[in-house]
Specification:
- The protein is an alpha/beta fold.
- Among the domains are: 44-271, Glycosidases (TIM Barrel); 421-502, Immunoglobulins (Immunoglobulin-like).
- The chain is built from 14 helices and 20 strands.
- The protein has helices spanning 2-21, 63-79, 106-109, 122-132, 159-162, 183-199, 226-234, 241-263, 290-293, 298-304, 325-335, 353-369, 381-385, 388-396; strands spanning 42-47, 84-90, 136-141, 145-147, 167-169, 176-178, 204-207, 268-271, 309-310, 341-342, 345-346, 375-378, 421-425, 429-434, 442-451, 457-461, 467-471, 473-476, 479-492, 501-502.
- The chain has a nine-stranded parallel sheet with strand order 10-9-8-7-3-2-1-12-11. Strands 15, 16, 18, 19 and 20 form a five-stranded antiparallel sheet that branches. It has a three-stranded antiparallel sheet with strand order 4-6-5, with no helix packed on it.
- A hairpin with a 6-residue loop joins strand 5 and strand 6.
- The longest helix has 23 residues, at 241-263.
- It is globular.
């Protein structure tokens, strides 16, 4: 029964996709009575710096080449109608930004602790370049990984040497890991995050699935925190070892969310845990247990609303019985009692035609299960860049038009003031220039327009774009259709849109 359901589910969404993209229909255009509305969807990609997976292409790459590679990635996202980037700035208790708390990253300069030459701040560069392209930038940090085996030698500048009381070596693998139970670990990781939030104009803070380490990182053995647990017991602690570990992570996540909001309320906090909470949740799902192996009680974090967006890594096909994408997404949706954003992470792993179709099916499945809060994060940007067929399918289908990031009303529900527009008319077009706003939190502006016998359309302008040009007539249904309406709006940092202001362009 489950197999037949999944087969029918997949077929329905494939048909829905083709219907929505117009590849299976050709209806004549009509004037829509509804007011104009821009699409809303979170369209993000991870940019991994650990082991130089996505950027920069190698340690010690010259600064001008680093910047060219960064711009190429961001230009790609803009051209393919993404609206956010998840940029890894702390892969191993190091920094791809200027920090007094942790050393410069080996993955950036080829030597841990060495600054770029000539000097620049990569995070500042990425933030400015992303915002100029209308992209949100979320900083991605690994809270507990102290050293990665691909991260070069452990130098005197490393946190492993500077804070040896907080870290533990994993068995013969080259990994060093913070002990999450220690007060000093929580204080240090919190200070690192808040330092970034205070000094950079970021849009979000993001953690992935690494809490207590996967067991293969310690050659299958348990995490070596016996000394900490014994000290806890001697101090009167009563929790089992598993509950004690989970409590350490829970308290860190809860407090960090509170501290981020005290610092900058509009900065979103996102988590991307392993996609399965526990085997059997929901029924038929197996096999990895993050609750008992990573000591990550991700369901609790979602239930409590300690996050602003939740992106479980649902890296499995729709039709795989024991890890089915829609079955797991539906379960996480039902656990989202605080109505935070639920934007799953997706990963299909190759560039085949079958993989491309799987991505499209998963996007449309997500839209069907979460129609009011659409969005995904692609693992990783490299998979999309290397797959020309997927790019074409996205931009001709679900990502055909640009989209605004869904609003976060629990952070702020007050919209900005509508912008003021200046019109310059010629014989065959109008130029619409949006005047600078006095409101600092305006992040995007939208120009809506409608021609006779056609639906409303729109152009989303980022902060670097001040104007749009529209022809006075448009060919549609074999006839020249005159421009009837132009409206403009402003959108703030958390996605609130102003009232739409009608713009007069009559002679």
């Amino acid at each position: 029964m489950t197999k037949n359901f999944l087969r029918r589910f997949t077929i329905l969404f494939v048909l829905f996709y083709f219907t929505q993209t117009g590849q299976a229909q050709n209806f004549p255009p009509t004037v829509l009575a509804a007011p104009p509305k821009a699409e809303r969807e979170f369209r993000a990609a991870w940019v991994a710096t650990v082991a130089n997976i996505n950027w920069p292409s190698r340690p010690g790459l010259p600064v001008d080449s680093q910047q060219k590679e960064a711009i190429a990635l961001l230009d790609f996202l803009k051209a393919n109608n993404f609206n956010a980037v998840i940029f890894q700035v702390r892969p191993q208790a190091d920094a791809l930004y200027q920090s007094s708390l942790e050393p410069w990253s080996y993955f950036l300069t080829g030597e841990q602790g060495k600054a770029p030459e000539p000097f620049y701040d990569p995070l500042q560069f990425w933030v400015e370049a992303a915002h100029d392209r209308g992209l949100e930038l979320h900083v991605w940090l690994n809270p507990y990984r102290a050293h990665h085996p691909a991260g070069g030698p452990v130098t005197d500048s490393s946190i492993v040497k500077r804070k040896p009381n907080l870290v533990l070596p994993l068995k013969d693998t080259g990994y060093w890991w913070f002990d999450p139970s220690l007060k000093g670990t929580k204080e240090h990781a919190t200070a690192v995050v808040l330092d970034i939030v205070k000094r950079y104009d970021i849009d979000g803070v993001h953690f992935d699935d690494y809490f207590y380490p996967y067991k293969e990182y310690n050659k299958g053995e348990d995490f070596p925190d016996s000394a900490s647990y014994v000290a806890y017991g001697k101090a009167g602690g009563k929790l089992s070892r598993g509950d004690w570990r989970r409590d350490a992570v829970n308290s860190f996540i809860s407090n960090l969310y509170t501290q981020i909001k005290k610092t900058k309320k509009w900065v979103k906090f996102g988590l991307s845990p392993f996609g399965i909470w526990r085997p059997g949740y929901p029924e038929g799902i197996c096999c990895f247990d993050q609750y008992d192996i990573l000591y990550a009680n991700a369901k609790l974090w979602l239930n409590k609303g300690w996050i602003d967006y939740f992106s479980p890594q649902l890296y499995w096909p729709i039709s795989r019985m024991n890890t089915s994408f829609p079955v797991l997404l539906g379960w996480w949706r039902d656990e989202n009692t605080k109505k935070r954003h639920l934007w799953p992470g997706i990963n299909v792993g190759d560039t085949s035609a079958r993989a491309t179709l799987e991505v499209l099916n998963q996007l449309m499945t997500g839209r069907g299960l979460l129609p009011q809060d659409k969005g995904v994060i692609h693992w990783s940007i490299g998979q999309v860049i290397k797959n020309a067929a997927l790019q074409k399918a996205l931009t001709e289908g679900p990502y055909k038009r640009r989209a605004l990031v869904p609003a976060s009303p629990w952070l702020d529900s007050i919209p900005p003031t509508a912008p003021t527009a200046k019109i310059q008319r010629t014989s065959d077009s109008i130029g619409i220039t949006l005047l600078p706003s006095t409101e600092k939190d305006v992040f995007r502006r939208v120009v809506y327009f409608q021609y006779q016998n056609t639906p409303w359309n729109y152009v989303i302008l980022n902060r670097a774009e001040k104007s749009a040009t529209l022809p006075l007539t448009l060919m549609s249904a074999g006839k020249k259709q005159p421009l009837l309406h132009v409206q403009v709006s402003a959108v703030d940092r958390v996605g609130n849109e102003s009232l739409k202001k009608e713009v007069s362009f009559a002679k």
